[in-house]
């Protein structure tokens, strides 16, 4: 069966009630048929549910679907995307280990690597997304254990060559850990390039409607095992209700990502033609610095477009006030178009030099392109670009 069929038809086992839609297992714990079964479940000679912090049928259905979509052996779900990112590192790395990461990271991932893991004696080396293979190899140290990256990155949409990194990780026996949130498994599957772990903020496109929080990490069973131990005893568990919601959403993920990508490309092309917009960044635009790489490892450009406006934050403020359709929010991945200014929101805690190195300027706007009629979006963004430019010019 094709993955779209599997995404719809992968469900928990039918109960005696013969339900068509999978039920919600909203329970904190599970009962035992006997004392012997309780013992067997705890000593793991029998498989089954004990407590929803450990496992739950609703959560497992969601995990099974993500494993299927990503081509992964095993996985587990967490309460949030950042819990998944943290667990994928903290569940494996130990004091004295070294992690190699792409510099272009989401702000919280950056804080985990530079502040939290650092307190435990885990060192790191950052490289630019377009660093050469020789540079990545030169970063490998005797105590290197993991390579972690986002591609496309948040918010700069920088790409990392997955095939190259997979080759380096295999050569040096490093764990290859990829945040695939922006692309989703519909647009790229990092496991095809040798990724050992793939993490997602399920809050974003996997939900797709801004309803629930969630995270998931999938990959090779040998690496999921210590992450599961870490999560079982530290408790970043996903709510069964959230898992049930997310599992339903995965049934339409492929359809939504196709429309998101179509809308994003058309909006990016329209904005690139406007003199009032300084720069447009989108992986499937020929003007993107890594356009050829995007075409090689992604089957579409995704839903995220960034633009840069002249005039700094004052221009950004005028632009946002002029818009009629988009929602102003730091979230993304919704059916509704969302915009934010990373300089003052998602990446505001970064130091000035860190922002500069990632191209996060005062005039940068991240657009999560929704599923509205693209003609309406183009008209709205066009008028806002013109109106905001005129407002700044008038002040000067």
Question: Quick summary of this structure?
Answer:
This protein is α/β, with parallel strands linked by helices. Helix content is 41%, strand content 14%. The chain has helices at residues 3-9, 35-42, 57-70, 81-90, 107-119, 133-138, 162-172, 184-187, 221-234, 240-250, 253-272, 291-297, 312-322, 352-357, 374-395, and strands at residues 74-78, 98-102, 123-127, 144-150, 175-179, 197-201, 215-219, 279-281, 304-308, 327-328, 338-340, 364-368.
Any key phrases for this structure?
globular, 15 helices, seven-stranded mixed β-sheet, 12 strands
Write the layout of secondary structure elements.
Blueprint: H1 3-9, H2 35-42, H3 57-70, E1 74-78, H4 81-90, E2 98-102, H5 107-119, E3 123-127, H6 133-138, E4 144-150, H7 162-172, E5 175-179, H8 184-187, E6 197-201, E7 215-219, H9 221-234, H10 240-250, H11 253-272, E8 279-281, H12 291-297, E9 304-308, H13 312-322, E10 327-328, E11 338-340, H14 352-357, E12 364-368, H15 374-395
Parallel strand pairs: 2-3, 2-4, 4-5, 5-6, 10-11
Antiparallel strand pairs: 1-7, 6-7, 8-9, 9-12, 11-12
Helix pairs in contact: 3-10, 4-5, 4-9, 11-15, 13-15
Structural write-up:
The radius of gyration is 22 Å and the shape is globular. The model has no long low-confidence stretch (mean pLDDT 96). The longest helix is centred in the C-terminal third of the chain and has 22 residues, at 374-395. The protein is of the alpha/beta class. The protein has helices at 3-9, 35-42, 57-70, 81-90, 107-119, 133-138, 162-172, 184-187, 221-234, 240-250, 253-272, 291-297, 312-322, 352-357, 374-395; strands at 74-78, 98-102, 123-127, 144-150, 175-179, 197-201, 215-219, 279-281, 304-308, 327-328, 338-340, 364-368. Strand 4, helix 7 (162-172) and strand 5 form a beta-alpha-beta unit. The termini are far apart. It has a seven-stranded mixed sheet with strand order 1-7-6-5-4-2-3, with helices on both faces. A five-stranded mixed sheet has the order 8-9-12-11-10.
């Amino acid at each position: 069966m094709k993955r779209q069929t599997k995404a719809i038809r992968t469900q928990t086992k039918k109960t005696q009630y013969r339900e068509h839609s999978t039920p919600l297992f909203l329970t904190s714990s599970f009962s035992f048929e006997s004392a012997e079964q309780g013992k067997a479940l705890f000593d793991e000679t029998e498989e089954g549910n004990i407590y929803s912090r450990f496992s739950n049928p609703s959560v497992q259905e969601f995990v099974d679907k993500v494993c299927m979509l990503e081509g992964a052996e095993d996985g587990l779900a967490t309460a949030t995307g950042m819990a998944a990112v943290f667990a994928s590192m903290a569940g494996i790395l130990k004091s004295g280990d070294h992690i190699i990461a792409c510099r272009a990271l989401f702000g919280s991932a950056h804080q985990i690597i530079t502040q939290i893991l650092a307190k435990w004696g885990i060192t790191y080396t950052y490289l630019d997304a377009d660093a050469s293979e020789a540079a990545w190899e030169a970063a490998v140290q005797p105590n290197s254990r993991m390579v972690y990256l986002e591609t496309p990155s948040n918010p700069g949409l920088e790409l990392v060559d997955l095939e190259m990194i997979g080759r380096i990780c295999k050569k040096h026996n490093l764990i290859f850990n990829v945040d695939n949130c922006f692309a989703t498994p519909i647009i790229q599957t990092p496991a095809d390039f040798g990724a050992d772990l793939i993490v997602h903020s399920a809050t974003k496109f996997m939900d797709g409607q801004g309803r629930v929080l969630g995270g998931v990490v999938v990959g090779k069973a040998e690496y999921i095992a210590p992450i599961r131990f870490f999560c079982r005893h530290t408790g970043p568990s996903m709510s069964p209700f959230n898992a049930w919601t997310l599992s339903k959403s995965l049934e339409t993920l492929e359809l939504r990502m196709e429309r998101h990508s179509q809308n994003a490309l058309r909006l990016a092309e329209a904005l690139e033609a406007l003199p009032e917009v300084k720069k447009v960044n989108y992986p499937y635009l020929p003007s993107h610095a890594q356009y050829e790489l995007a075409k090689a490892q992604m089957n579409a450009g995704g839903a995220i477009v960034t633009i840069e406006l002249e005039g700094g934050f004052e221009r950004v403020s005028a632009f946002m006030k002029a818009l009629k359709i988009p929602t102003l929010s730091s979230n993304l991945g919704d059916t509704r178009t969302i915009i934010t200014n990373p300089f003052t929101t998602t990446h505001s805690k970064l130091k000035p030099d860190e922002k500069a190195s990632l191209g996060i300027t005062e005039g940068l706007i991240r657009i999560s392109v929704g599923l509205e009629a693209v003609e309406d979006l183009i008209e709205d963004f066009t008028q806002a670009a013109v109106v905001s430019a005129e407002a700044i010019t008038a002040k000067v």
